[in-house]
UniProtKB/TrEMBL annotation:
Compartmental location: Cell membrane
Keyword set includes Cell membrane: yes
Membrane topology qualifier: Multi-pass membrane protein
Source species of the chain: Salipiger abyssi
Primary localisation category: membrane
Protein name: Flagellar hook-basal body complex protein FliE
A cellular-component GO term for this protein: plasma membrane
Length: 89
């Protein structure tokens, strides 16, 4: 295994983490901004109003995006294991 192979695997791993976590983080961001906007408009400062909708949205996002996340991680692990089996050549 050369230095370029190691660099490629590490960069693929970082990108996989970003792509897999990206949709869930985007959902949390959008829901959080909508709740903050709603609270600013109505001046309702209830603590459960900030957490419960975000938790529900993240859970629903995980239900929807789990197959995508699984395929991303599986592709990365298949490439890494194939490199291991081939002896790095």
């Amino acid at each position: 295994m050369t230095e370029s192979d190691t660099h490629r695997i590490l960069s693929d791993a970082f990108l996989t983490v970003l792509y897999a976590a990206g949709p869930i983080m985007a959902i949390a961001l959008v829901v959080g901004l909508l709740i903050a906007f709603f609270q600013a408009l109505t001046q309702i400062q209830e603590m459960t109003l900030t957490f419960v909708p975000k938790i529900v949205a993240i859970f629903l996002g995980l239900l929807v995006f789990t197959p995508f996340m699984y395929s991303m991680v599986k592709t990365l692990s298949d490439r890494a294991f194939d490199l291991i089996v081939s002896g790095g050549s």
